[in-house]
């Protein structure tokens, strides 16, 4: 499956540890992207509530979830909707699968030290992991495979969400010849 080469739509996958700043960057980026067309944010927690309302975060469940997320993103792009995938996707294979479905794809590595992500964690993901309520937290129990060749690297200890969004937009402009203010 590929998208129409004349489409202006594309996908951006924001990947990083839980609480690294992905959602904050997506929120800053979305209004800028909307200047040229429709944009949909596929945020993993929201989509997961529909696909796996009682998640176990098992490997099999994660495989199915991320394949489904990539497929949804590909279908939206194929219909002219730019997609922001806001999801940890702790295995490279998940993001590589999305890239195989969506040729107009940008991978953004959202980097943040684990200690800072744990401090920022308003959802309590790391706390549940430390208390034994979860045994699959990426970065804590389960490995996080950082991108090997992301199109954009964002260090959230050095860049604000707005500066990160501008940096992503620069790559979008270069790669897809899109114009933003």
Helix and strand topology:
Blueprint: E1 11-15, H1 22-33, E2 39-43, H2 44-51, H3 59-78, E3 82-86, H4 92-101, E4 105-111, H5 114-120, H6 125-130, E5 152-155, H7 161-176
Parallel strand pairs: 1-3, 1-4, 2-3, 4-5
Task: Give a written overview of the molecule.
By secondary structure, the chain is an alpha/beta fold. The protein has a single domain (11-176), classed as Rossmann fold (3-Layer(aba) Sandwich), CATH 3.40.50.300. 44% of the residues lie in helices and 14% in strands. The chain is built from seven helices and five strands. The chain has helices spanning 22-33, 44-51, 59-78, 92-101, 114-120, 125-130, 161-176; strands at residues 11-15, 39-43, 82-86, 105-111, 152-155. The chain has a five-stranded parallel sheet with strand order 2-3-1-4-5, sandwiched between helices. Helix 1 (22-33) crosses helix 7 and helix 3 runs parallel beside helix 4 (92-101). The longest helix is centred in the middle third of the chain and has 20 residues, at 59-78. Residues 1-6 have low confidence and may be disordered.
Distance linking N and C termini: 32 Å
**Fraction in helix:** 40-55%
Unreliable spans: 1-6
- Rg over CA atoms: 16 Å
CATH class placement: Alpha Beta
CATH topology: Rossmann fold
N-to-C order of helices and strands? EHEHHEHEHHEH
Would you identify the CATH architecture? 3-Layer(aba) Sandwich
Entry keywords:
5 strands, 7 helices, five-stranded parallel β-sheet, 181 residues, Rossmann fold, alpha/beta, 44% helix, globular
């Amino acid at each position: 499956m590929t998208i129409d080469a004349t489409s202006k739509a594309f996908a951006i996958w924001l990947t990083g540890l839980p609480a690294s700043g992905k959602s904050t960057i997506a929120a800053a980026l979305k209004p800028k992207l909307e200047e040229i067309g429709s944009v949909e944010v596929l945020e993993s927690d929201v989509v997961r509530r529909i696909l796996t309302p009682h998640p176990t975060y098992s490997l099999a469940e994660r495989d199915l979830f991320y394949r489904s997320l990539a497929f949804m993103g590909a279908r939206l792009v194929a219909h002219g909707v730019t997609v922001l995938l806001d999801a940890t996707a702790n295995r490279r294979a998940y993001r590589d699968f999305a890239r195989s479905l969506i040729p107009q794809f940008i991978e953004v590595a959202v980097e943040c030290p684990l200690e800072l992500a744990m401090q920022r964690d308003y959802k309590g993901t790391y706390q549940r992991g430390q208390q034994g309520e979860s045994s699959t937290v990426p970065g804590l129990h389960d490995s996080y495979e950082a991108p090997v060749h992301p199109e954009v690297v964002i260090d959230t200890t050095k860049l604000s969400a707005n500066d990160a969004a501008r940096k992503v937009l620069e790559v979008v402009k270069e790669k897809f010849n899109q114009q933003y203010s």
